[in-house]
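**Backbone shape codes:**
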Amino acid sequence: MTAAEHTPEQTTDPFADQAWRAAIEHAAGCPACRTPGAACETGERLLRAYEAATRQARSAGAA
């Protein structure tokens, strides 16, 4: 995972913002996340949590 591959969506959900911050902070200090082609389970899990929070915020906003 690299920051260039993923950008935060515009949400007003604090959980999505918190999930994005956690993913970015992890990636900044993780050698595997900063290495192209390397896999990091923690980074991927944090990114999936962010994506889920963003989808949830969007669906709540559309309702």
